[in-house]
User: Fold this.
Amino acid sequence: MHRYYFDNAATTCCNEKVLEEMLPYFSKAYGNPSSIHSFGRDAKKAVSKAREQVAHLLKANPTQILFTSSGTEADNLAVFNSLKPEGKKHIITSAIEHPAILEPFKELEKKGYRVTYLPVDNEGIVSEQALIEALCEETSFVSIMHANNEVGVIQPIERFTQIVREKEKLFNTRILFHTDAVQTFGSISLDVQKLDVDLLSCSSHKIYGPKGAGALFIKHRSMITPSLFGGGQERNLRSSTENVPAIVGFGKAAEMAEQNLLEVQKEISFLRDYLIKTVKSKISDVMVNGSLENRLPGNANLSFAFVEGESILMNLDLKGFAVSTGSACSSGALEPSHVLLSMGFSHERAHGSIRFSLGKMNTKEEIDHLIHELVPIIDRLRKMSPLYKNEGKN
Amino acid sequence: MEEYTDKVFKYFQKMDNMGAIESPDGYGKVGNAKCGDIMEMYLKIDNDKIVDAKFKTFGCVAAIATSAALTEMIKGKTIDEALQITKKDIIQFLGDLPTVKIHCSILGIEALKKAIKNYQELKIHE
Assistant:
């Protein structure tokens, strides 16, 4: 059976050229970057190059890039190890963050921090007004994601940092601003200066790089305290022998993403618009979740009324199509997607949501195949649904 | 147990008993959209024997598969025999169920109990 991958927001395939670039660092140039002999120097050079490549995509300085093992580690580092002066125990985030941010915030809450979870509107945009009202003299840290992984909505980070900077002046205090840019990095153009963020997380495996590498952009080294103690790698902030092959792959993937960023962005958003338009024309009662205007190029999050997401997902999977769902049933959780519920949608709408996330490899033909299979699946599940008969269409 | 068995997938796709029965002898509906599972059970009963059973389900793979399995299991059984079926029987019938999906099998049993109760109440009023 031919298989089709529409889950690029979960992870992407590792690009062949990226893999080629990585391979020598497993068994040929396998030196430890901390060693001063030629094996070590070769490895160190490779890590430095990757640092430049990642920095370049962010328009940052290479010294501002700290390599981690993942986006989650970068997020944890930002939340737990960012500088929070004594007496500044108020921190702010949004209700729709990735668990890699929400869970660390809950941990700090247990340790006595006061947390404000900013609400979002039904388009999925974080409330600017709520941020203005939440900021106070005790606030030391704000984390708002750049784009949401489920609904793909891009947040107006520049506007948020502007608000935070104004309050900083007003309170004569320092408030660190972090953004989880795992979904936007390599997908839309980023500029840390324009965004005016202090910290930013990104990840390799979402941009056709390998798993096992991520990075945290840190504006000034003093904003972060060390997370791992040992040999002093990563400017003493994160000791650990570098995962050289993964970092090399991450760098190469960042470089490749930058090469034709706008072109790819245009192509993928064309496919996304085609997918949404075609699904809506062939299937009734389909709702798009999240702003269409401020959206990642590859994200189409749709709710199919009267049916449940996991049963759609598995029916598609049996036909070879990989997608994702916000239904609780897929994860074994009791509640469906916290993102969709925060946007004010009903449990039924959240349970019936499917995320199609497109990538460089998807084609229009693949989308046609997908929809060809999707139409009878939704039809059959609706005939089976006790919710559907009330609509008088059965 | 984390994964669905092949038999779960088979019953997930088996549509033989899917649908409604016109003027059923017993009908039961359980669950709600909030918890993510809704099941309707329709029974045709002749002389306390289940001669036909159909279901309508809004829910995940496990909810649909257990509905399909249970309706098949109860056909030909007396209502007393059908009431003896436990969640363990359904899980055994399907090979197994992921731990987080065990509650889906209870849904089917509750719908069945409700449908039989409905039948018995209708019978009293006859």
